[in-house]
Amino acid sequence: MKSGFYKGLKAEVSEYLEVHGIRPKADWILWTKFLVSLACLLGSYLALMTLDLNAAQAWVVGLVLSLSICFFFVNSMHDMVHGALTENRFLRDVFPYILDWIGPSSFIWRNKHNRSHHFHTNHPGIDNDLNVSILLRFSPHHPRMAFHRFQAFYITLAYCLQTLFWFYVTDFKNILRGKITKQKLLGQTSAENWLFVINKGIHITLALVIPSQVHGFQSAALGYLVVYGLASLLLALIFQVAHVFEGAKFHTIERFEDQDQWAKSQIEGTCVFDPASKFALWVYGGLNLQVVHHLFPEIAHTHYYKIFPIIRKHCQENGIELHCFESFSAALKSHYRQLHRLGTGQANGDLYA
Predict the structure, then answer these.
(1) 342: closest CA among 236, 271, 245?
(2) Looking at residue 351, what is its pLDDT?
(3) Within the chain, which residues score under 50 in pLDDT?
(4) Where are the domains of the chain?
(5) Residue 346 and residue 251: Cα distance in Å, rounded?
């Protein structure tokens, strides 16, 4: 790898955007996705709360609500939390509360995802996405338990429960401990702690209290589990396949020597799938091109397909391995094979310091 690799890459991407008159933040396509997905989310929720639906109709609307949560999360809120949706300070401060009301704490998410995961991707001791639960072994450098040999079989159920575990266990544990893995929570104040409690209360009110008043507690609880179980499964698969796959590299670097070393770790610990498909970009919110997202998280995902060829060219010129799958199904198969290899001790994984 040549010295100045990342600097040269950023310069070419900036030049490309400037020459083609592309603003790095959201374009009309992303704002349309934001408004449509939010309308579907609110519309399906209100339909369940106000309309006299039979069982079949309720299940269909519930399915729409679940898919809307997933689509809204990957296509809007992910960009928003990274500051890629808008430069308007007021909107950047207010919009993340929508995420809180859906379930996860936006304050914890910014710390966990933006700092822990993005700065230290595939670091077994810091990247929180590798340290989800003792039940799941996502890194060959974590202790292996006897039950891990079955994780490729029970992982689907675990993924269905992951968001609820996130909402009610991980978020609370992190706010009480004041840190995520080894990192202190940045910006934690008494006001943030109170907002955390208030927003959790709003989520529980919207997701369980109001539905219980309308449909009864048992029906509301079942609907909650089904809607969030499906959304959780889809979100977990979309996010986890990008870093848990055959050939993914890991590192134990807590302070990188330079930006080149950091950028190389991002590329070698991340995969892309369906890179030429604009439809995949539209559906997955740019997470099919995770390499672009990790190198340029402040750029809206609707621009990723224009930037990816530049990254691929620089990787080829600098001898950096770029992991690319032809489709999501190919990446998914590699994900499950890697889970099996990790569970049975067959995966060693490249670890560099």
Answers:
(1) 245
(2) 52
(3) 352-353
(4) 5-23+246-346
(5) 19
